[in-house]
Amino acid sequence: xxxxxxxxxxxxxxxxxxxxxxxxxxxxxxxxxxxxxxxxxxxxxxxxxxxxxxxxxxxxxxxxxxxxxxxxxxxxxxxxxxxxxxxxxxxxxxxxxxxxxxxxxxxxxxxxxxxxxxxxxxxxxxxxxxxxxxxxxxxxxxxxxxxxxxxxxxxxxxxxxxxxxxxxxxxxxxxxxxxxxxxxxxxxxxxxxxxxxxxxxxxxxxxxxxxxxxxxxxxxxxxxxxxxxxxxxxxxxxxxxxxxxxxxxxxxxxxxxxxxxxxxxxxxxxxxxxxxxxxxxxxxxxxxxxxxxxxxxxxxxxxxxxxxxxxxxxxxxxxxxxxxxxxxxxxxxxxxxxxxxxxxxxxxxxxxxxxxxxxxxxxxxxxxxxxxxxxxxxxxxxxxxxxxxxxxxxxxxxxxxxxxxxxxxxxxxxxxxxxxxxxxxxxxxxxxxxxxx
Length: 437
Ligand code: 5AD
Ligand code: SF4
Description:
The protein contains 13 helices and 19 strands.
């Protein structure tokens, strides 16, 4: 039996794509192994969002070059799409290059490799199909990803995604609901809806079914206790989404709303299609909700032309919104993107300085936000157990990690169950509590 090893870089979309690729391979009779030395087929599902992510895959390929004899190498995902056949020049031992928009061709590509072809590619971006497969092999037995829309029609000046994942393609609501029902029947209780821009979801078979309407329908699937979604684009994030969350406790009280910068002029240069004020309007909707919705964001520092004043506006935005968490990055110039040719690039050292200041400020804000929960009771989905501390690891609806002990130890594994936990302590990145049910 042929054995494969797969390693995934990048976002949840990639993680989920890998689950589908694994399912496809298992169905072809391959066996998954955890060690490259044992594998006949080595796959890297790659990310090219920042230069560092891209470099990682080439260093992995170089590391294994010496042991390449008899093995087949596949580069999938965003670097595959971006670099295409150039990958064969940079890493001649690679045999398969396939972008995420072409995964539905994977079985044919694999068959060609199996029949002895040395180099095969799947790089078409003009597919109007989505990669739906009943073969998905999910990693987590309780939380399942469902792709609702693939690709992206925006053109943010810094971003490779429109090039690597192609134009937007929404799945029909009926196929999404069917998958959710199957998952519920298989014991999954949490669903995470995925897309580069979930807010622009429209059911291709029923244009009146938008994202908020889909959310309401998924929340009604029997057996599903939690529904999350990512990622949102502020421009397309409508009030109807907040209304849906208000009305339905199954929809988690957490929204990830990437802002990228607190300065309207930087936002314009980034082609984000909203101003600081328009973004803050959406934050106001979220803050007015009775659900205590946690808000997280993505921020890029050092975009070309970002002045000290612009950066200070980002710092002020952090204070104003009081994010529950942020992902922050130094701007990384990417191939094909409009920002590549902009003047006034910010020196690396200055980007680093801004990132440190930003992250320090956010640490204080998170500690403050988390401390507000001390004394409150939160429901968690138990995800694991930490041997070293003797604590169970839970996740709240707000997507916070809540580590807890129980008053009745020795009752067997709690993983996968829902517990009520009283928060007793708070740190910047997690909470501590005690379960009493
Ligand atoms: N440089 C740095 N960060 C980037 N992101 C996207 N493109 C770049 C880039 N060229 C960040 C954005 C996005 C997140 C997924 O990655 O903040 O929301
Ligand atoms: Fe990375 Fe973006 Fe591709 Fe996800 S879609 S893997 S973040 S480049």
